């Protein structure tokens, strides 16, 4: 998935077990879809908390962060509850959406999903792609910059 690509709709369960579709999420404004390897790990916690801490800035731009990983719904619920994220965490246990976005790793990898973020406009077009496996705060920071420039 690259800047300018149109994202096909998808449906996944969130941390509460409610089915969410990309189109429904985009009805509320742009979506910052961030893929992370595994809930409750140090890097993913730092990244997710940074998105949480910048929530007011995303809201001011009419956008919302949405996390996604291969973790089960129950694990996403535990993660969200522990850190009070306030934004959806989607469960992609089969890696179908990760494959759609080109962020799924080989099955034997310890981290099944690459850490990448996609800023998606309400027209389902990718505005920005952010790639960094080790700089956790760059994802939210660059997403905000892309939204401000859009």
Distance between the termini: 18 Å
Count of separate DSSP helical elements = 6
- Estimated structural class: alpha/beta
Helix-strand pattern:
EEHEHHEHEHEEH
Shape: globular
How much helical structure, as a percent, in the residues? 25-40%
Question: Order of strands side by side in the largest beta sheet?
Answer: 2-1-5-4-3-6-7
Largest sheet: 7 strands, mixed
Number of β-strand runs: 7
Mean pLDDT: 94
Could you tell me the radius of gyration in angstroms? Answer: 14 Å
Strand content: 15-25%
Question: Which stretches are low in confidence, meaning pLDDT under 50 for 5 or more residues running?
Answer: none
What does this structure look like?
The protein has 150 residues and is α/β, with parallel strands linked by helices. 35% of the residues lie in helices and 21% in strands. It has helices spanning 22-26, 42-53, 55-60, 73-83, 96-101, 138-149, and strands spanning 11-14, 19-21, 31-35, 64-69, 89-91, 116-120, 126-131. Strands 2-1-5-4-3-6-7 form a 7-stranded mixed β-sheet. A hairpin with a 5-residue loop joins β6 (116-120) and β7 (126-131). The longest helix has 12 residues, at 42-53. It starts with 10 loop residues before the first strand and ends with a helix.
List keywords for this structure.
seven-stranded mixed β-sheet; 21% strand; alpha/beta; globular; 6 helices; 150 residues
